[in-house]
Structure formats: C-alpha cells, structure tokens
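Q: What changes when S-adenosyl-L-homocysteine is included in the input?
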Amino acid sequence: MNLIDIKSLTCSELEREMEKIGEKKFRAKQLYEWLHVKLAKDFSEMTNLSKALQEKCREHFELTVLSKVTMQESKIDGTRKYLFGLSDGNVVESVLMRYKHGNSVCISSQVGCRMGCRFCASTLDGLVRNLTPAEMLEQIYGITRDIGERVSNIVVMGTGEPMDNYDNLVKFVRMITDEKGLNISQRNITVSTCGIVPNMKKLADEKFQITLALSLHAVTDEKRKELMPIANKYSISELMEACRYYFEQTGRRITFEYSLVGGVNDTQADAEGLVKLARPLNCHVNLIPVNPIKERDYVESEKQCIQAFQNKLEKNRINVTIRREMGRDIDGACGQLRRRHIEGAER
Ligand code: SAH
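A: The predicted holo structure follows.
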C-alpha cells in the first residue's frame, strides 16, 4: 500500500484522512500541531496520541523529514547555506540570512530546473523533479530546529522555477501561512519567477498578499532571449500585462529582479529601457551583480557601470536597491552547492 505524505496535507485534508481510518476529527488538529508547530520528526514524539494511534499513523502515513547533509556558515555575515537530503537520495539547498529585522530563509522549489537561464547554475543538469509541499516546508522547519529561532521571512528564490511547480507552491504558501501552523505572514513571503505568464495570472487570482518578483534581466525581447529561453515563449509586453494584473488583483507592488551582466545588459540605454518598463507599474527594482559560474563566461559589471545604472533609475524616481551580497565565501549563487556535491559524488 502506498503511504500518504502526511506533511503535505492541509488540516482539513488530514481530518478527512483521520475519518477514513476510523479516528475522530479532532485528532487531525493534534497531529497538525505536532507536525507544523512543534516540528516533530517522528510519531513517537506525539505524546498526547496513544501508542496504538502512533502505530496506525506509521501504517498509513509517511513523514517527510530532510536530513542535513552539510551546512556552511559565512564568516563574513553569518549566512548559512544548508544542503538537505531528500528520502530518494536527491539533495536541495536552502539559505538562512540573518538580518536585524529577523531570520530570512531562501528555499528551493524543485530539484534542478528546466528553464535554462544562461547564467544560472541550477539549470545546468535540467529538472530532476518537483518538490512536494512537505519538502518545501521542511527546509524551513529543518532550519528552525537547527537554530532554535523563529523564521519570519521566506523567499522562494533557490533552485527551481516555482511557477513550474504551481500546485505544490500554492499549497506550500497556504500551509506556511496557516494560523494552525507556523503562521508566517503572507506579506513576508516573496516568490520569484522567470516569467511564466499564465501561472503569474493564476497566482494573482489566489489573492495572496505575497510579493511576486519577476526575473527580468533585459529590456528588449531580443536580449532577453539570449539570456533566458523562456523569453521565446512570453514577450516582455505580455509579462508587463501580467504584472499589471497581479497588482490589480492583490494591491501588491511587483519587484523586478535585474542581474547585471558585464557588457551584456548594463548600459545606460538598458537603464533607460528599464525606467520605461518600471515607471507605469510603480514597482521596485532589485539589481543583482551577476555571480559568475565557472560553466559560463559571463562576468560582473564594472563598479562604475553598476553605480551609473542605479543612478539613472534613481534620477527617474524608480525605487531601486542593489542586492546586498551575502555568503559570497560559501557558494552564493543558486545551485552551486548542490552541483559541487553531485560532482564530488561522481568522482
Ligand atoms: N526560477 C526563479 C527563482 C530562482 S533564481 C526565477 O527565475 O526567478 C532567483 C534569482 O537569481 C533570479 O532572478 C535568477 O535569475 C537570479 N540568478 C540566478 N543565477 C544567478 C547568477 N549566477 N547571478 C545573479 N543572479 C542569478
């Protein structure tokens, strides 16, 4: 018999499962609290359930817990990069960033990625599989257990394209923000997408209060196609229309992510193009100096270029920040750590 992935069930789904196995509904609430508030790793910890019920749970359910394969801590800023093992032997990476305003965790949404962005290490070996809601939750639970402190912010910006794993992503958002679980504020969650237009609109219709970040990286379709294969499918004008729709439906300001690549997208003309796209949307622009990966020959923009790019946006009253670099000394860029791990295992 196939075991049910209990940690991917919402509380009401769990109630139905309890009834199916002849248990009272209220048992679901107790189980849900053990799983999603007390972050139990095993049924045996659930001391207000009888031994018989714990055993019954073991027969019907599997309990997803990630194993900590490695953890590196930056000596510069305390950023921690975790490599977690999944039950099928795959690994994913997650990052903890410690800010004055709280702990922020960046999670992966897939094992690998099939979007093919040229500068990104996560996509070099393609997509292996989607992560389940439980595996996304467990990245946060694992880090919470490890540091013994609350995580208050989540960014879905690790390996994978969240809009390519839409249903699991939405379920994850519902569960991590559930008041019966960790109850993280929707406003403290950011989901980043390379721009899968139909799912951006679908997400808008969920009417969450989460922030949607669009990885733009170029201001003309031509240049965007060079950097991101997804641009062959959706044009910038379709993307802007989807962003407008997201704002209309949720009232949440969009973030544009723009990775500056030396000599590719960092000219004053690019900055002007970005002003034109950003202004009508009243969005926030996040500039990311590209983090070079050894498999590609993209380089960082010159310091003056980055400064001039930012100045151009500011002069035009566009809200802009340069992404603070964290954890440069510990394989900062997406997918680097997992890749290094796999390469090491192959050798
Ligand atoms: N698939 C999602 C989320 C993952 S990546 C997306 O595309 O948005 C999070 C951000 O980091 C994206 O904007 C991505 O384009 C960017 N990124 C990936 N590799 C990078 C690198 N080597 N240097 C700078 N930014 C990178």
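Observations recorded in class: The mean pLDDT is 94.
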